[in-house]
Amino acid sequence: MFDEGGWNKEDGGEALSQALLTPQRCPAQHCPPAPRGSLQKQRRQLLTTLQRLEASSCAEPPQSPGPLSGDSESESDSADRAGRKQPRKQRRGLKPRAASFPHIAPSGSGAPQAGPEPEPEPAGRRRRKDCAAEAPGDKAHTPNKEPPSRGAATGGPGPVLSRKQWRNKQKNKRRQKNKFKAGVGKDVGQSLGRGQDVEQRTSALPPLELSGALRARMEERLQSARFRYINQQLYTSSSQEAARLFQRDPAAFAIYHRGFTRQVGRWPENPVHRIIQYLRGRPASLVVADFGCGDCKIATSVRNKVHSFDLVALSPRVTVCDMAKVPLADESVDVTVFCLALMGTNLREILEEANRVLRPGGMLKVAEVASRFADIRAFVSAVTQLGFQIVSKDLDNPFFYMFDFSKTGPSRARGKLPGLVLRPCLYKKR
Ligand code: SAH
Question: Is residue 119 scored above 80 in pLDDT?
Answer without folding.
Answer: no
